[in-house]
Amino acid sequence: MEPPRGRPDRPHLRTRIGSLGHSFGAVTAGKLAAIDDRIQATFALAAPIDSPLFPNVSLAPIPLAFLVAREDNSISEFGNEFIRDNFDAAPKASWKLEVADAGHWSVSDLVGLVDNFDAGCGMDMRQTDGEAFTYLGPTTGRSITAAYVTAFFRATLDDDPGARAYLARGFPDDETVTAVHHD
Fold it and tell me: Which parts of the chain are beta strand (E)?
């Protein structure tokens, strides 16, 4: 295997590596972190890393972040409970973000692209209580995701105190995001 390439004037760029994944990509990012010791932090979007569906994937002993899309009718409340369990079981510093009115695709630019990606678009019924609601707008969902992913990697890979402080508060300030952390 070739050594990692990087800019000679910025060799630190080759040593701070994180992994990020959405849906099955979250499982892939988690597996990568468990088998590649270069990965120093992992963020899983709208899916658990460790679940009975993937018995060969476990939580790596590195900082982890999990995003729960509360109205994710793709993995359902059952899948969201596995994400919450992953957060509780994480062996190192871990963050969990719960995003109100978010569906499975609310974190991506694929939301509503085709009919199969409608989980997170328009109106629906809440999976928890059956009430009618409107999903988080796609621009807001992507903005929240981008902001927290950036803050997580700045906090864990760059040890940025401002990014750590950002992770500790809800964004926006209207209870759309509930953020919790444990060491």
Answer: 17-22, 39-45, 64-69, 94-99, 123-125, 132-134, 177-182
